[in-house]
Amino acid sequence: MANGVEHGANKMALTAMKLLLGVVFLGWLMIWGMLPTHTFRERWLPMLLSKTKTTYFGRLGTNVLIFTFPILFIAVVGCVYLHIVQKSGRNKSSSGALKAWRRPLLIKQPLGIVSGTELAFCLMFIAFLVWFFSCYLSNALANFEGEVGEKESDGLWLAKLEIAALLLGLLGNLCFAFLFFPVTRASSLLPLVGLTSECSIKYHVWLGHIVMLVFTAHGVCYIIVWAATNRLSEMLSWARVGVSYVAGEIALLSGLLMWATTFSRIRRRMFELFFYSHQLYILFLIFYLLHVGISFFCLVLPGVYLFMVDRFLRFLQSRNKVRLVSARLLPSETVELNFSKDPSLHYNPLSILFINVPSISSLQWHPFTVSSNSNLESDRLSIVIKKEGSWTEKLCHKVSSSSLDRLEVSVEGPYGPNAMAFLRYDSIVMVSGGSGITPFMSIIRELIFRSTTDSPTPSVLLICAFKTSADLTMLDLLLPVSSTVADLSRLRLRIEAFVTRESVPPNEPNKLIRTAWFNSDPSDLPLAPVLGRDSWLWLGAIISSSFVAFLVLVGIVTRYYLYPIENGTNGFFSSSWKSLLNLLLICICIVVTTTAAVLWNKKISTMKAKIQNTDALTDRELESVPHQFIVGATTVHFGERPDFKKMLSESEGSNIGVMASGPSSLRHAVASICSSGPGKRLHFESISFSW
């Protein structure tokens, strides 16, 4: 009875929070929508300025109130919402009434696989941008023509072009305000709408292209105006008060350098060039701030602020070296790394882990899907890596070396979905190509765990394509390396494996999997949640406390430092120095509050680690997996390619989840089948960082 009452109270609280967050977000969007209107600029904005025009904040306070505060409020309340969801065990996402909107509608480059929901939001966002710019432009030109009249005809088009250039900058601010949301991994905003950082990368890419197109047009228009009016010297001006053109040019140049390396051909062939040039975002942000000033920067501050919190959390986590216990070496040039894990660290299937190996590269971080399951393997976290590039080749060579007794590794994550969406289906069809099978290992292990607890589980059909028979050894990694799971009879699993480049089975059996064990250093720590078990509450506390501290510091500095200068003999304070001072205060508040939270949780985690022995992994454990189950469930086809259309059409069930992972051609082929008429009962999901 008590559990039922508590469940009902949680449900009511979650519903109220959803409603509140939706209202606040819509209000924030409405403010952006009203920004170019005459009513807002002539009536509402002066009223808001009069309310906040005090000794302490002024125009900065107005922009913080209407542009920054609402999103940070949503982020903090969202953390509380996700904490309640996590504690109540509501891991199964609702199916919803708009299944048709999630079906793929566009399956072509350059956008890749786009669902109906994504396409609808893209069209609405583009329409919003067009309306925003056209409304701003029409109002500005009407005021301009009313002032000029018919007195001047020469140079009128240049004046209009200059107005358009200014408004393009404002339009770029609107796009820029959304740019950092998709790449903020430890954020409550993405899970609130059912997204992960992995599937949101493409939104960051789309927004990045739009931002750079608009900002480039903004800069080019100004250069044309300056050249036509013999004012090119303004390109070198750095005004003490107002807009700094030099800062804007440096920001645009650094943005163009980043943009040039983001196109697929350059990014795929020269990934290191793309990776290192993308670090110019720091330069871009600083000079963008110096260009527009701190008041206008508040328009884009919410996304930047949350990204800064996330980035510093990742920095603190990456300072620790994690304990690498063992590695399983497969004959298919694949390696499974097994890390020691704190039992308090829980994650859902399809989570990803970013790893860094300083002995290979101290700057490069690479994401890999977590193949283990926190329910079955409480003291271990595993990832599978296949040799497919220079970095992975060096890693595989190091791990396979007999002289290596310890490998220094840093990690960020794991990051994953907040709910197990695959549980809402009656049956699941998982399609993989090559190393694309790794995301499905954690799903199968989760279903193994649920089958041992008598929970309802969907049936699974795994269709996997490999180049050679040596790659078939990856199927041995589907089951956990623990002997605690002896009964797999309740798991409804069927595997159809295709070896495309060999027409007959090999005469000689494949080489066995080899296990390499590593020593640990006293400084190596088990993988643990960087903010402890209640990570969502701690994240909300960091965001709220750091922002309040920033407001307090801004008030103090303005009252006792900036205000006396601006009202003294000098009369003004440099806009650039004021912007840098505010940025410094933001960084100080984030660093202090985040460091305090992380150190407190690290202290608690260290105390628990001394009590628990997390190295209880033996060679016998790794060799006691019931591989007979996998062999009995697998049918191998040599010299064939899977007929996806036939196999998907023959799948049983009225509610079938189809997940595809691997090369883009494979994912596009499966998506095309699911989007066709016969695929109405097929619900597609693509699992990949590329699109």
Question: Could you characterize the architecture of this molecule?
Answer:
The two termini are 48 Å apart. The model is unreliable at 613-625 (pLDDT under 50). This protein has a domain at 320-528 and 643-687: Rossmann fold, CATH 3.40.50.80. The strands form 4 sheets. Strands 13-11-10-9-14-15 form a 6-stranded parallel sheet, with helices on both faces. Strands 7-4-3-12 form a 4-stranded antiparallel sheet, covered by helices on one side. The chain is built from 20 helices and 15 strands. Helix content is 52%, strand content 13%. It is α/β, with parallel strands linked by helices.
Quick structural overview:
By secondary structure, the protein is α/β, with parallel strands linked by helices. It has helices at 2-34, 38-52, 59-88, 116-148, 156-176, 189-192, 197-228, 245-260, 264-269, 271-277, 281-297, 301-318, 390-400, 438-452, 535-566, 575-611, 619-623, 627-633, 644-649, 664-675; strands spanning 104-108, 112-115, 324-330, 334-340, 352-356, 366-369, 380-386, 410-415, 427-433, 459-466, 493-499, 514-517, 634-638, 656-661, 682-686. It has a domain at 320-528 and 643-687: Nucleotide-binding domain of ferredoxin-NADP reductase (FNR) module (Rossmann fold, 3-Layer(aba) Sandwich), CATH 3.40.50.
